[in-house]
């Protein structure tokens, strides 16, 4: 791997520094809220459902500088952004969907989040049978417990390990927060790679080599639809990482998939340890919008407990965005992303090429 060297810059950060920084935080002003409300009134006058809204239908001329700032910070800066101050309590769920989707289509191009063609997903605890609805392997976790797909794990109240989503940028709007837990954990995947190169370069090298993943819960109902992809990639000096232990573990349950080597297993364990070491915690408040560049960050979630009687039942609205200023990806990433050129519409589930 000729380009296997540390990458410096704003994307290679340590969590403790970001926790004390406001470079990645913006607050929506009264003028911004007023403009969002005017655009919302416009699409309602047109009778548009949220899925039909385009940037032309939802003009935000007074937010042009903020939107460009968001795009730049996500792609060329830290890779994370939090917008604060959206008064979510002022809107019905239906109107909030239209407003959030209208803002999203001004930032990027929404892509499908599942094989059912959803462009927005409510992230909340959907109960104990999520595996039956969203993918599981019976008895796959030992003790007769089913092994849940990554998609199913997102929709219960358990912890989520560090991972990336299959999109340039993932956006989460907090509508309601849990009574306890549900803390978002974020780290720089670039810094993780740099630390691996410094501490154990042979293990870092292992993650530039292909590792088998399963499409369980994405395109496939079963775990035996697989593909090979490195965890780390670099093109033109720009980094990308696609990582989820759940997809790797699901592939390992398929009989004819090669077993992870000791070196690969050790490298993946080191990645997880470093992600925890280098991360910082961010608790969502209602009205916060978190935007993460999947190429340069990993994110996780602590378990949570809801209390519907007090209105503390955690619910987030999620969008996946292909970005107009995105980086080019290595050619071997085409198996997952479809398009690898800079600024292309790509990613998502079942994304049509081009």
- Work out the radius of gyration: 20 Å
The appropriate CATH architecture is 4-Layer Sandwich
Tell me how many strands there are: 19
| Ends apart, CA distance between termini | 29 Å
Tally the helices: 11
Counted up, domains total: 1
Give the strand content: 15-25%
The string of secondary-structure elements, in order, is: HEHHEHEEHEEHEEEEHHEEEEHHEEEEEH
> What profile does the largest beta sheet have?
7 strands, mixed
CATH class: Alpha Beta
Q: What do we call the CATH topology?
A: Double-stranded beta-helix
Mean pLDDT: 95
Percent helix among the residues?
A: 25-40%
Low-confidence stretches: none
Apparent shape:
globular
CATH homologous superfamily heading: Clavaminate synthase-like
How does the helix and strand content classify structurally?
A: alpha+beta
Question: What does the secondary structure layout of this molecule look like, with pairings?
Answer:
Layout: H1 15-19, E1 25-27, H2 30-46, H3 64-76, E2 80-84, H4 93-107, E3 109-110, E4 121-123, H5 130-134, E5 136-137, E6 147-148, H6 150-154, E7 160-163, E8 169-176, E9 180-181, E10 184-188, H7 189-199, H8 201-206, E11 211-214, E12 226-229, E13 232-235, E14 238-241, H9 245-252, H10 262-278, E15 280-282, E16 289-293, E17 297-301, E18 304-305, E19 315-322, H11 334-337
Parallel strand pairs: 1-2
Antiparallel strand pairs: 2-16, 3-19, 4-19, 5-6, 7-17, 8-16, 8-19, 9-18, 10-15, 10-17, 11-12, 13-14
Helix pairs in contact: 2-4, 7-10
């Amino acid at each position: 791997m000729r380009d296997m060297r540390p990458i410096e810059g704003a994307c290679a950060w340590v969590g403790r520094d970001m926790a004390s920084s406001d470079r990645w935080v913006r607050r929506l002003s009264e003028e911004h809220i007023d403009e969002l409300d005017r655009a919302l009134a416009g699409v309602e006058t047109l009778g548009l459902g949220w899925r039909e809204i385009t940037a032309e239908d939802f003009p935000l001329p007074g937010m042009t500088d903020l939107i460009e700032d968001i795009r730049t910070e996500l792609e060329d800066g830290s890779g994370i952004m939090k917008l604060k101050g959206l008064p979510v309590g002022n809107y019905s769920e239906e109107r909030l969907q239209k407003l959030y989707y209208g803002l999203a289509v001004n930032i990027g191009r929404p892509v499908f989040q599942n094989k059912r063609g959803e462009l927005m997903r409510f992230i909340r605890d959907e109960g104990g049978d999520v595996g039956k609805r969203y993918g599981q392997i019976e008895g796959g976790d030992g003790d007769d417990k089913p092994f849940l797909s990554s998609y199913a794990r997102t929709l219960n109240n358990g912890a989520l390990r560090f991972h990336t989503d299959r999109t340039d940028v993932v956006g989460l709007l907090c509508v309601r927060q849990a009574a306890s837990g549900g803390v978002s954990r974020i780290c720089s995947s670039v810094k993780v790679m740099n630390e691996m190169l410094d501490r154990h370069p042979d293990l870092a090298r292992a993650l530039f080599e292909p590792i088998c993943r399963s499409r369980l819960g994405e395109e496939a109902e079963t775990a035996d639809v697989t593909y090979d992809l490195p965890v780390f990639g670099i093109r033109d000096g720009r980094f990308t990482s696609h990582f989820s232990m759940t997809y790797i573990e699901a592939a390992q349950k398929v009989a004819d998939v090669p077993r992870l080597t000791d070196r690969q297993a050790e490298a993946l364990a080191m990645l997880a340890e470093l992600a925890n070491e280098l991360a910082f915690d961010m608790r969502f408040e209602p009205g916060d919008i978190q935007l993460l560049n999947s190429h340069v960050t990993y994110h996780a979630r602590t378990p949570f407990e809801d209390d519907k009687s007090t209105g503390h039942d955690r619910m987030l609205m999620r969008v996946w965005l292909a970005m107009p200023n995105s980086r080019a990806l290595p050619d071997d990433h085409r198996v997952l992303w479809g398009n690898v050129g800079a600024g292309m519409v790509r990613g998502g589930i079942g994304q049509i090429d081009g």
